[in-house]
C-alpha cells in the first residue's frame, strides 16, 4: 500500500465524521443559517491567507523546479479560483464578500493554522505536504460525495460550492500524494510516522473547522482587541 493510501485509511473515521458533520449536511440540505455561512467565510478567508504563506515556506524548502511550480500554481488557485465557493456562501448569506475580510481568527482556526505553521517551520518538504494535504483531500471527497448523494441542479443554493469542489479532476490531491509517496519511500520510519501524525491532526482540525463555523465558535471572553 502506498504511504498516502495508508494515512488515508488511518484517517478514515475522521473523513466519515467530516462528511456527516451538520455543517456539511447543511450544505447538502441547503439549510444553513446566514450567521454560520458568514462565520465560515470570515474564518476561511484568514485560513487561506495563512495557507498561501505556508506555500511560501514550502517553496523556500524546494530544490526542484517542478515542486516550486506545483506550489506556485496552488497559490494562484487560492487567489483566483477559491474565491468562487466563498462568493456562493456570501450570496446565500446576503453579505458582500469584502465585509467578511480581516476579522480575528477564532480558536479552532487559530490552532489549525499554528499546527500547519509549526510543521512547516520545523519540517522538510514531506512534513509540509503531509500537513497541507487534508485541506484539498477532504474537500475533494466532500464535493464528490455531495455530487453523488444530492445530485444538485442549479436551483440548489449551494450548487456552485458543490460543483466547484465535486466536479474537479483533483490534480492537486493526486500531485501532493504522488510527491509525498516519493518522499516517504526514501524516508526513515520515524519520519514517516511524523508525517502520518501531521496528516491525521490536520484531518482532526478540518473537522473542528466545520464545527467552529456551525457553532459560531469564538474566544471565551470578548475583548476590544482585534489582532491575534
Ligand atoms: C479549512 C479549509 N480546509 C480546506 C479548504 C479547501 O481548500 C478550505 N477552503 N478551508
Could you give a short description of this structure?
With 228 residues, this protein is mainly alpha-helical. The chain has helices at 3-10, 12-19, 22-29, 34-60, 65-80, 83-93, 107-122, 125-132, 134-150, 159-166, 171-185, 189-215.
Instruction: Work out the strand percent.
Output: under 5%
Backbone CA Rg:
17 Å
Helix fraction by DSSP (H/I, runs of at least 4): over 70%
Average pLDDT: 96
Overall shape: globular
Structural class: mainly alpha
- Can you tell me the CATH topology? Heme Oxygenase, Chain A
DSSP helix count? 12
Order of helices and strands: HHHHHHHHHHHH
InterPro entries: Haem_Oase-like_multi-hlx (IPR016084), Thiaminase-2/PQQC (IPR004305), Thiaminase_II (IPR027574), Thiamine_Salvage_TenA (IPR050967)
Family: Belongs to the TenA family.
Domain Thiaminase-2/PQQC: 9-215
Pathway: Cofactor biosynthesis; thiamine diphosphate biosynthesis
Amino acid at each position: 500500500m502506498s504511504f498516502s493510501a495508508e494515512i488515508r485509511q488511518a484517517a478514515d473515521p475522521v473523513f466519515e465524521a467530516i462528511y456527516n458533520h451538520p455543517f456539511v449536511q447543511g450544505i447538502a440540505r441547503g439549510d444553513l443559517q446566514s450567521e454560520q455561512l458568514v462565520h465560515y467565510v470570515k474564518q476561511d478567508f484568514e485560513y487561506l491567507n495563512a495557507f498561501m504563506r505556508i506555500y511560501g515556506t514550502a517553496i523556500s524548502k524546494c530544490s526542484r523546479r517542478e515542486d516550486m511550480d506545483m506550489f506556485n500554481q496552488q497559490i494562484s488557485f487560492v487567489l483566483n479560483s477559491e474565491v468562487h465557493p466563498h462568493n456562493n456562501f456570501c450570496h446565500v448569506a446576503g453579505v458582500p464578500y469584502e465585509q467578511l475580510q480581516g476579522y480575528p481568527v477564532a480558536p479552532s482556526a487559530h490552532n489549525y493554522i499554528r499546527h500547519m505553521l509549526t510543521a512547516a517551520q520545523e519540517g522538510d518538504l514531506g512534513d509540509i505536504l503531509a500537513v497541507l494535504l487534508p485541506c484539498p483531500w477532504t474537500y475533494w471527497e466532500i464535493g464528490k460525495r455531495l455530487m453523488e448523494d444530492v445530485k444538485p441542479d442549479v436551483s440548489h443554493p449551494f450548487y456552485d460550492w458543490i460543483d466547484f469542489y465535486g466536479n474537479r479532476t483533483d490534480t492537486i490531491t493526486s500531485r501532493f500524494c504522488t510527491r509525498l509517496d516519493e518522499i516517504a519511500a526514501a524516508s526513515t520510519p520515524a519520519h514517516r510516522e511524523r508525517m502520518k501524525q501531521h496528516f491525521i491532526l490536520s484531518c482532526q482540525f478540518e473537522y473542528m473547522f466545520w464545527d467552529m463555523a456551525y457553532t459560531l465558535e469564538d474566544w471565551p471572553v470578548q475583548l476590544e482587541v482585534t489582532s491575534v
